[in-house]
Design goal:
Number of domains: 2
Strand content: 5-15%
Number of strands: 15
CATH class of the largest domain: Alpha Beta
Helix content: 25-40%
CATH architecture of the largest domain: 3-Layer(aba) Sandwich
Structural class: alpha/beta
Largest sheet: 5 strands, mixed
CATH superfamily of the largest domain: Periplasmic binding protein-like II
Strand order of the largest sheet: 10-7-11-6-12
Length: 499
Amino acid sequence: MKATKILSLILAAIMLCSCFLVACGGDDGKKGDGGEVILNTNEVDQSKVLDLEKKTFNGHEFRFMSRKTSHYHLDTHEIYAEELTGDKLNDAVFTRNAQLEKEYNCKITEEKTSSPASAAREPLMAGEYVADFLFDEARLLRNLAASNLLADVAKCENVNLEKAWYDENGLNGLNIGGKVFFVVGDAACLDDIASYIMRFNRDFVEEYDADIDLYDEVRKGKWTIDRLYELMNATAKDLNGDGFLMPNEDRFGYNAERAVNWAHVAACGVTVSTMDDSGNYDIPLSPKQELVDAWAALKPVLTASTRLNDDGGLNEGLCVFYCCNTGSLLNSSESTYDLGVLPLPKLNEDQDKYYTTVYFSQLCSYCIPNTANNAEDYATNGFTSGVEQAAYFLEVFSYYSMNILTPAFYNQVILKQSVRDLESAEMVEIALENKIYDPVIGYSFGGMNIFSAVGSANQNGIPGTDVNYDTLVSSYEAKVAAARKALTNYLNYINTESL
């Protein structure tokens, strides 16, 4: 699980190079919650200790094939950096790689393409060794898993998936049927970047009531759907005085595209699928009652005339609350307003935690192609197969990332003007701490990701009181047979031994 102590991460990021060298250089240093070195203590968190036998790779080139996109915050930044530039994330990647290449006598290279899963498919089918790792959208890589082209990382002796540098929720939500093809954790930033948060205009909230402290409400567990509904209605404003709220002219209380509807459901701590103690997923024939209840509770927010189905407007003062991915913090521009960050609201005060979810089409994960076994040097380097060699490197790559990359990522997010204060940093920590990955929604088996389609907006993006929001059960039941069949087919594919 990723480190969650952001204040420690800030400190660790400031000291990342010197501290990590101390940690790797002897037995005196031990890692704290954010990867910082703590000296002279007997307490050691074994989940954060790399306990592999030290091996070197005799110059082996570890090849990564990763996704390239025109959107800065969705591009791959976590694998390779050519030089130090002063950018915290870039320099952390460069520092980590330099340390790994020196300590393990290897080389890290990256090939970027718009779709690694598509580009690699034909060569992998032909048995070619194209890369040690693919880093792409899990929903696209799933097709490679169904063709028996990916290694089950859970079977690799050099990988311990219980270590702190792996995201347990992500492993459970991306992998189905007891096999682990897709790996997420500290070796990547895109799972955090693709997670949903709430941003808000503190100036407008204080204009309504100067005594409101939403950060304190979050800490006390009082930031709920009802509270959002109250404030979004109270802070919306008809700026041009024509008696209507119109996009690009007036201030809406809340703005979010309909794709965010599922994020709000997940923030209530519920899923579409069920999972038993053995990790087996199922799709109920009818929606679970807690799912129906969450949707009913959300309807006032989703259908309010003060909500806009659009994108943006926060920096310009045209909305008060805005739901988006964390990546928007990395890509945000300056604003004249005082902006803050919140987790998505809970269903009610009885809910135990704040939750978020990950937008699967932006989420990338690591996988090891079976053709990594065609690497010619694995036996010389002391491994039983090329897959085991790659798995060993994934472990050390993830461990070093936990200590170097993750602190730098949080530090870069926090130091952006949109989250420039420590209280907002605390809210980012709370917002990202508990991620829900529902594979039925993420992989959209049978088109089951129905939440953005249930309920429509008029041409201006204003949802109003759309009666389609009452059709969740019928929409679900219209899709469930196809969804269950698609899930069964996928399980059959991955459990068929390749020839």
